Amino acid sequence: MEEGEAPTLKETVDNVCVKGSPKNQNNEATGEVSSQMSNPGSVCKPSEEEPESRYNRLKLFNKVMQKSLEKFIDHASFNRFASTFRPLYKKNPQRMESIHKQFIEELRTTIQEDISRLIEEGRLDFKLTELDKLENAAKKNKDPAWRPSGVPEQDVCSFLMPYYQKQEAYMRQELKKIQAENAALAQKVQAGRESSVQTEQRISTAVDEWKTTVTEFERLASSLCPADVFDV
């Protein structure tokens, strides 16, 4: 019994040692990873809801402008500059190199100022940022995008009718505003006319009163000082 049990115990100990060895553990770990890689469902995938990092149009525009500027400056190299003004270069190479450096600095500054002025006058920073926002908003929109139906008349109507309806609503609203303004102006004109009529009536009444007063004064003067008193 003891001799029969000894090989069994020895095999059990050997199996445990083999399984517990670092090499075997690495193999098992590698096998688990391989099985996970072969089964895509078992691997943790990154969340699709996380927004992808998109490029910024303003930064991209600045980068493109800067790269274009550098390429343009490279074309104005000293060799080309010297070959264009070879007689001056032969007389004084150091002076020509100094002139070229100053020319490059002035050219770079002028182009950068023009680009900055273009961005400022065209409000490109605001417009490109708004374009980025519109793109992000379009991604969040779950409604299906418009697709042609194959019938040109229906496609044109479906595309133009909402635009014309918006224009019609806008024109109706503007018409109401203009009509309200015209009504207010008409009321002001009518009030001005009524005020003018009242002013004319007051003036006419004042003139009549003045004429009456003058007539009474003349009659009173003639009664107090008759003409025959002054006859000699």
From TrEMBL:
Residue span of region Disordered: 1-52
Q: Which organism is it from?
A: Cottoperca gobio (Frogmouth)
Tell whether Nucleus is among the UniProt keywords.
yes
Grouped into one coarse class, the protein's main location is nucleus
Cite the PANTHER family for this sequence: POLYAMINE-MODULATED FACTOR 1
Lineage of the organism: Eukaryota, Metazoa, Chordata, Craniata, Vertebrata
What cellular component GO annotations does this protein have?
Answer: MIS12/MIND type complex; nucleus
Q: What is this protein called?
A: Polyamine-modulated factor 1
Annotated compartments:
Chromosome, Centromere, Kinetochore; Nucleus
Give me the stretches of Polar residues compositional bias. Answer: 22-41
What keywords does the record list, in alphabetical order? Cell cycle, Cell division, Centromere, Chromosome, Kinetochore, Mitosis, Nucleus
Please tell me whether the keyword Ligase is annotated for this protein.
no
Highest taxon, organism lineage: Eukaryota
- BP-aspect Gene Ontology terms: cell division; chromosome segregation
